[in-house]
């Protein structure tokens, strides 16, 4: 499977973003993760729950069932399950065998989204979820107008690896996003790549460069210094710091920070050839508010659309029946390392 | 192939409903049975005919041809076939080789529908078609307003076994059809399952139970006795008796029959993952007429839609690349027996 | 693969029509040939170019890139290629390795269309393209109003072989096109089949026959002599002479030519189950002009639609998982010979 070895699909013993908090309600919702259907809903107390999405009796989708209190009742033959997946009732018989349960997925609500553990539940260690304070996800606005907001969930018609490849080679900003956030200098400035246990970082410091169309349009600044520093918390989340300052070489306001934000790209394998793509951001500067986010959100939506376009176009170009081999460039150090690390994780968990 | 063993698709030496009589006309129509295309039409004398749906010359669909009298002429190169499938003309040559025929399917018109034999023609024994008088299909209305009517043909996007599973476990009425014909008590009353040569019967006698939403709305009766007694005439037709009476424990009109009908569910494999679903009914009581059928038909259409929804949803949940295993309940005695009997029939005919 | 042996798809060392000249512009366009994506565009000097359609870096479609002068820049990471396919720039590195090129396809513009060579470039011999003067394709109108015009490009949802089969058995005119150009006598008049190196010819001389609906409607002539003489220049182009004269047995104007035209059917494999179908014509008589072509073009479009309908219908009838075997008629001498010759060419080039 491009670009992994045969048999490698996705890391299972891992936390992935399953949904934004507001998406999961008392109305059961189906979503696929790692090629398995899952039903998501909230208990009366508001706790989010993730259970296997097929009834074990006749494979009917559990999301087509209904909640009676915290009991999810299959809409086909009425077999009922508690929020922990245990079967509580089989209408046609008195006894409820233990085998008749739905797999319950560990699910953790943090900040404004939900993390699902797709592997062996005994190995579900919450400390493996990226530390939300450390990555700048704020539960409440900061004193200086710092604000973290969920922006979009997209269901993308391409395999998840393509989204990681996209995020690990940011030289694409200069071309795919040339009409918005792109700067030619991002492609020509090489990135410093470092890595550790389940993380991979690519950082660029662009000096005295032509600003992007957006910076020019919004702030009227032509020459900037730009830091773009992305960490891939494997296998699920990319956290990117972006800081734009007026060039240190400028005649006026040299070095002044004009924009400082963090972006969060969560990528979750859905089916073999599709993925969930969650996007959130923290605006540290300039100060903003929920109300003022609309134009920023609209601008970002266009960028995300371009990334989705690229992903779906490449998916379309990959033959079903034979491998392709990407040629690598100097901009692909992180891509190559990322693919290898993911593949190692997959192989390790297969033992 | 869920839920059968590898290699088992469908019983071939069998009669299946191909169409309602009114669907087959002088306009050739294509319909697939057991993964083969068939063309259906009527001769000038009105006899319905079923021939292989591909021209043996260049595989062009025969239903795109035209009738000249009783001769079906291929629309591509004009090769012509009689109603018995024999080739009568090849425009480019004088001689017509015997090999150049269309397979003719035995086709029997009974009541208001057509039965096709999909297997070895030499084994096509009409006595294997369920006895229509015995199952209550009336050619003409009865003295007391008994009436048999064809109601719907649907092309369902799910494998035919799912429709049989549906019909062999009627506990689903309590849930999938809870807003119409469903009664909770149907699920909690166990069925008596009996079987014989090519038939399988599941009967429930529900006593003094809350009536279904429809019975309540139409007849204003709260407590009923209910008999639901389905026989699967394998492999093609389910015949179900449904009799609703005012509860024998009621203060007034105890035991009075308020509704007595028979339903006919004919299931015919179309492609590997689709099926034809024919529905007809005999209303024995209360007296009705063709004109009065409209609201009944509309109500039934909603129930059928729910069954089709369940079938197509489960089809969507079945992985293409690995088997699933259903967990069985006490309500599945007939399902298990039905699957086994069908599989035995398939294996027997493979010798 | 119906109707060829397993493993045979298409002749690769060959010229195929890729596009009409007017279709290829400064806007890069994607088109698939022999199951590979190709990008087509023109240089500033107007030369048409065909390069591999996937960027070797990350498989992004080159047609989604943009031209900077004659340099095609990938829209994803900015990797740039000259019109000969050589990589001229990789933004993230200084060195451009030789391996980093796009395959360049030999492309020849002749008359008003473009021929692409899909095989080994070293074997691309222009003399293998049918001689355009010899087949009657005129670059300019003739003194007597002779005119060659490109008419249509269609992307057909069926394997290319079906289009060749169609063109090699013209007895189909009598049936598939019975309401337009069809004459019953075409099917009953046997064709003389001759062949040579990479060509196959089927010619019919129809004498004193009922004219086609079109001839009757346009010229009011009931009995005609008709010559239809098609040569398949393998593997890509069918050239057909069609001459209709008033029957030599007619009382008046006996033998007068009322219509004399040449048709060009270029068939190019696109994907495994789709093909490009280009159609052009030369009207030799009666004299015509570009302006007067509209009704002729509309009439021909209907005929082409019928051929596409047949092709797509047959594609739909071919099972994915097992072979079918066509039964041949006396009208299939050219079909059988054509299939064999194509298959021999495929086998020869596999060595």
Give a quick rundown of the structure.
By secondary structure, chain A is of the alpha+beta class.
Explain what the structure shows.
The structure is a homotrimer of 351-residue chains. Chain A is built from five helices and 18 strands. By secondary structure, chain A is α+β, with helices and mostly antiparallel strands. Chain A folds into two domains: 15-127, 3-layer Sandwich (Rieske Iron-sulfur Protein); 138-350, Alpha-Beta Complex (Naphthalene 1,2-dioxygenase Alpha Subunit, Chain A, domain 1). In chain A, the strands form four sheets. Chain A has a seven-stranded antiparallel sheet. In chain A, strands 2-3-4-9 form a four-stranded antiparallel sheet, with no helix packed on it. In chain A, strands 5-6-7-8 form a four-stranded antiparallel sheet, with no helix packed on it. In chain A, helix 1 (160-168) crosses helix 5. Chain A is globular and about 85 Å long. The two termini of chain A are 20 Å apart.
CATH superfamily of the largest domain in chain A: Naphthalene 1,2-dioxygenase Alpha Subunit, Chain A, domain 1
Query: Could you estimate the helical fraction of the residues of chain A in percent?
Result: 10-25%
The CATH architecture designation of the largest domain in chain A is Alpha-Beta Complex
User: How many domain regions of chain A?
Assistant: 2
CATH class of the largest domain in chain A: Alpha Beta
Strands of the widest sheet of chain A, in order across it, are 12-18-17-16-15-14-13
Radius of gyration of chain A: 22 Å
Give the beta-strand count of chain A: 18
- CATH T-level topology of the largest domain in chain A: Naphthalene 1,2-dioxygenase Alpha Subunit, Chain A, domain 1
- Given helix and strand content, the structural type of chain A is alpha+beta
Strand content of chain A: 25-35%
Instruction: Measure the end-to-end span of chain A.
Output: 20 Å
The oligomerization state is homotrimer
Runs of chain A in which pLDDT lies below 50 for 5 or more consecutive residues are: none
> The biggest beta sheet of chain A, please?
7 strands, antiparallel
Globular, elongated, flat, extended or rod-shaped: what is the shape of chain A? globular
Order of helices and strands of chain A: EEEEEEEEEEEEHHEEHEEEEHH
Chains forming the largest contact: A-B, 24 and 26 residues
- What's the number of helices of chain A? 5
Question: What's the overall average pLDDT of chain A, rounded?
Answer: 96
């Amino acid at each position: 499977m491009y670009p992994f070895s045969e048999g490698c699909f996705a890391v299972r013993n891992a936390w992935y973003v399953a949904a934004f908090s507001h998406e999961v309600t008392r109305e059961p919702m189906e979503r696929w993760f790692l090629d398995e259907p899952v039903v998501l809903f909230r208990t009366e107390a508001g706790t989010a729950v993730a259970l296997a999405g097929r009834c074990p009796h006749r494979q009917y989708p559990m999301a087509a069932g209904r909640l009676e209190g915290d009991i999810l009742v299959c809409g086909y033959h009425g077999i009922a399950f508690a929020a922990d997946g245990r079967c509580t009732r089989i209408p046609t018989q008195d006894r409820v065998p233990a085998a008749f349960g739905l797999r319950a997925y560990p699910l953790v609500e943090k900040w404004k989204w939900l993390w699902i553990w797709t592997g062996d539940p005994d190995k579900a260690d919450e400390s493996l979820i990226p530390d939300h304070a450390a990555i700048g996800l704020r539960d409440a606005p900061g004193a200086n107008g710092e604000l973290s907001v969920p922006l979009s969930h997209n269901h993308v018609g391409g395999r998840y690896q393509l989204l990681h490849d996209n995020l690990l080679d940011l030289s694409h900003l200069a071309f795919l996003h040339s009409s918005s956030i792109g700067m030619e200098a991002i492609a020509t400035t090489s990135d410093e790549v470092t890595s550790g246990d389940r993380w991979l970082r690519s950082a660029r410091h662009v000096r005295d460069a032509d600003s992007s169309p957006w910076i020019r349009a919004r702030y009227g600044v032509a020459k900037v210094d730009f830091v773009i520093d992305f960490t891939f918390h494997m296998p699920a989340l990319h956290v990117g710091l972006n800081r734009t300052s007026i060039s240190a070489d400028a005649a006026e306001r040299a070095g002044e920070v004009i924009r400082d934000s963090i972006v969060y790209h969560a990528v979750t394998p859905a089916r073999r050839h599709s993925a969930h793509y969650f996007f959130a951001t923290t605006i540290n500067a300039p100060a903003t508010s929920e109300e003022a986010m609309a134009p920023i959100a609209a601008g970002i939506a266009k960028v995300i659309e371009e990334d989705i376009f690229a992903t779906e176009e490449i998916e379309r170009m990959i033959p079903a029946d034979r491998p392709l081999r990407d040629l690598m460039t100097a901009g692909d150090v992180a891509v190559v390392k990322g693919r290898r690390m993911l593949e190692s994780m997959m192989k390790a968990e297969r033992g």
